[in-house]
Design brief:
8 helices; about 30% strand; alpha/beta; about 30% helix; about 190 residues
């Protein structure tokens, strides 16, 4: 209650509404300018922002700082930010210089604030599938150099995600969730 939360790449508003109902001041960031327009009448204690973070200086200023929690789900995947194949591949999400990005997120969090990266992806195949590379896009060393304490790094959460998927009937179309989907999370704290 009373926490300030930022959801980077929110995609849908359900989790934003849930966090707001729990008493948080919620900010969602997306590149799609139409998402805020469609959701606006439903929102209380939720502010939707659109633009390209962190290259849009106006957006970064608008977001401000003092966040207790900075989350990203299925957006900050290594395959999207720093794909490992093919060598030299252009990232699908352009976030600019790693050190500058990490410094911006560090500055947005209040001391002790948490940053959670949670990714779900399909089984990796050949050739390389960027969306299936669900690892954290940055190394432990990069995160530590930016002033973050590593709480957990690339933790396999596949079993819990699959249980949720079964409960939500993601397998109603015959998809074998247990063999085809994986989840991983990284949690760091601003020192």
């Amino acid at each position: 209650k009373g926490a300030k939360v930022l959801d980077f790449g929110y995609g849908n508003i359900g989790q934003l509404l849930m966090l707001a109902k729990l008493g948080a001041e919620v900010h969602g960031v997306e590149v799609d300018a139409l998402l805020p327009l469609a959701a606006k009448p439903l929102l209380k204690n939720v502010t939707l922002h659109h633009g390209y973070f962190p290259s849009d200086a106006k957006l970064v200023k608008e977001l401000g700082s003092g966040y207790s929690l900075w989350i990203s789900k299925n957006t900050l995947k290594r395959g999207y930010v720093h794909p490992t194949e093919p060598p030299g591949a252009k990232a699908q999400i352009e976030l600019g210089d790693d050190a500058a990005l990490l410094a911006t997120i560090h500055k947005q969090l209040k001391p002790g604030g948490l940053w959670l990266i949670y990714n779900i992806g399909p089984k990796q195949k050949t050739p390389y599938v960027p969306m299936a590379d669900i690892h954290c896009p940055w190394t432990r060393e990069q995160l530590a150099a930016a002033g973050f304490e590593i709480v957990d790094f690339d933790v396999d959460d596949s079993a819990a995600m699959r249980a949720m998927g079964h409960a939500l009937e993601w397998d109603s179309d015959g998809t074998n969730i247990d063999e085809e989907f994986f989840a991983m999370w990284t949690l760091v704290r601003r020192k």
